[in-house]
Every structure is written in structure tokens, then in C-alpha cells.
Specification:
The chain contains five helices and no strands. The protein is elongated, with a radius of gyration of 36 Å.
Length: 195
């Protein structure tokens, strides 16, 4: 409308007083829905107030405020996820998604490494027993060699060879436990990478 030349009855004053329309983004106003920014702000305030109350010794009030804050944060994040009108809710939604991905990775990592640690602990205990038996067999082999008992020496060498095989198997199993844990964590890390 400004691009057209003024008509004879129109003056510069009347055009200057016309309101200019500026399109912009606003938060959605849905009947019965809490705006995401308000819910997030009140949720954060509720969490902080709950933590302060817990620290000062008001356990019941602190727990109530924390629960209310968490509930409002959940409502705010859900509303922001559905209607990301402003930057703050979008940032919080993206942060929540990243936190969920990080928690999933942390859970898988903790599970994989604790399982590998338990397995390695059990294998170390078995390995210690096998090495003690091997040491005893070597001592007996030395005594048999000293006494020149060929049949006993052959038997002891076979037992030592069997123990060596079991020891090597335990050592491989310990390495495999670590490798499986690394592979499991790497698979989860690859799975949660943004595409």
C-alpha cells in the first residue's frame, strides 16, 4: 500500500499515522494449556525452592516442592516439544533430548563395564588357583626329574600343559570381556549419534 502514489485526498500525515503490521512469533495460546516458558520457569523455581527447603531441614515441604517442580518441568518440556515457539523452550527440549541420550549411554556403559569387571574378577580368582596348581605341578616335575621317574615326568608334563591351556583360556576370556564391553558401549554411542 505504501508503494502506490498518494491519491489526491490522501496526505503524508494520514499515511504516517497508519499502524504498521509486523509479523512475529508468539507463544501459542491454547485454552487450558500452560505456556511452555511459564511452566518451565515455575518448574525451575519449584526445584530450587525444594532443594533449599531440603537443605534447611524441611523435608516434607522440600519433597513437595521438588515434585511440583519436576511435574511442571515435564509439562513445560512437553508443551515446548509440541509448540516450540520461543528459543528457551526449544533449548530446553534439545537439552532434555541430549540428557536422555546421555543417560542411555551412561546406563549401557555402566552395565557393560560392571559386567566386564565381575567377569574379570571371577577369572582372576580362577587364574590365581590355576597358577598355584601349575607351580605345585612344576615343583613335583622337578622332584620327578631329580629322581629320574620318566612315567611320572610324562604325566606331570601333560598336566602342566593342560593347566597352561586353561591359563591361556582365562587370559583370553579376560581380554574378551573388556572387548565386549567396549563394543557394547561403542554400539550404543553410534546408535545415539544425531543423524
Amino acid at each position: 500500500m505504501d508503494d502506490q502514489p498518494p491519491r489526491g485526498d490522501e496526505t503524508q500525515e494520514t499515511r504516517a499515522t497508519e499502524p504498521r503490521v509486523r509479523p512475529g512469533l508468539g507463544e501459542p495460546r491454547l485454552f487450558g494449556a500452560v505456556p511452555p516458558s511459564l511452566a518451565l520457569a515455575i518448574g525451575i523455581v519449584g526445584l530450587v525452592l525444594g532443594i533449599v527447603l531440603l537443605v534447611t531441614g524441611s523435608t516434607v515441604a522440600g519433597v513437595i516442592w521438588i515434585l511440583a517442580g519436576v511435574a511442571l518441568l515435564i509439562v513445560g518440556v512437553d508443551a515446548a516439544r509440541r509448540w516450540p515457539a520461543s528459543a528457551v523452550p526449544r533449548l530446553i527440549v534439545n537439552g532434555a533430548k541430549a540428557a536422555v541420550r546421555g543417560l542411555g549411554l551412561a546406563r549401557v556403559s555402566a552395565g557393560a563395564w560392571s559386567e566386564a569387571s565381575r567377569r574379570r574378577f571371577a577369572l582372576r580368582r580362577e587364574l590365581r588357583g590355576l597358577r598355584k596348581r601349575r607351580h605345585a605341578e612344576l615343583f613335583a616335575l622337578g622332584a620327578a626329574a631329580y629322581e629320574e621317574e620318566a612315567i611320572r615326568m610324562r604325566s606331570l608334563r601333560g598336566q602342566i600343559a593342560e593347566l597352561d591351556g586353561r591359563i591361556a583360556g582365562c587370559e583370553r576370556a579376560m581380554d574378551d570381556a573388556v572387548k565386549r564391553a567396549r563394543d557394547r558401549v561403542q554400539r550404543k554411542r553410534t546408535e545415539i549419534q544425531p543423524t
